[in-house]
Design a protein that fits this description.
Elements (H helix, E strand, L loop, with lengths): L1 E5 L5 H14 L2 E6 L11 E5 L6 H9 L5 E3 L3 H7 L5 E3 L5 E2 L4 H16 L12 H22 L1
Parallel strand pairs: 1-2, 1-4, 2-3, 4-5
Antiparallel strand pairs: 5-6
Helix pairs in contact: 1-5, 3-4
Length: about 150
């Protein structure tokens, strides 16, 4: 069981939670990014630096993750590829992608993308709050605990 992090757009607070849990629970956490990340020295933490380009990190995660791994991403299309093969995916806000909700989440993502493309939605995401950090920490701990029980 491994933790995979789509690290390019992952909030620092989420990375910190993942790094602490990986070290505490002796689980490998792999941060995939198109830039160099500075992580603390730990045998449980690693960085895979991929080339620049659309979806390069996503493709790496799809090719290397396995059933019962845990992936952290806010990329709905990446989650859409992983969930059907038994990979657990949660976003940095603590929401789990599931077979039951992935179709709706892809449809919503596409609708919002169309609105952005037409200029109807402008601006970026709101700042990451403590409430979202707590929601992520709770969901992450729940899924990590469940997966560690399965993988033993």
């Amino acid at each position: 069981m491994k933790i995979w992090v789509d690290a390019d757009a992952c909030p620092v607070a989420v990375k910190d939670i993942i790094m602490a849990a990986a070290s505490r629970r002796a689980v490998e956490a792999i941060f995939v990014a198109n830039k160099q990340l500075n992580l603390p020295t730990s045998k449980h933490l690693s960085v895979v630096k991929v080339d620049l380009g659309p979806d390069v990190a996503d493709k790496y995660i799809v090719e290397h993750s396995q059933k019962f791994d845990l992936v952290i991403t806010q990329d709905t299309l990446l989650a859409h590829q992983l969930v059907p093969v038994g990979i657990v995916v949660i976003d940095p806000h603590g929401k789990k992608f599931t077979e039951d909700n992935i179709g709706d989440r892809v449809a919503m993502r596409n609708l919002l993308q169309e609105s952005r493309d037409r200029g109807e939605i402008t601006g970026g995401p709101k700042p990451f709050s403590n409430k979202e950090k707590q929601a992520f920490a709770s969901a992450f701990d729940k899924e990590l605990t469940r997966l560690l029980k399965i993988s033993v």
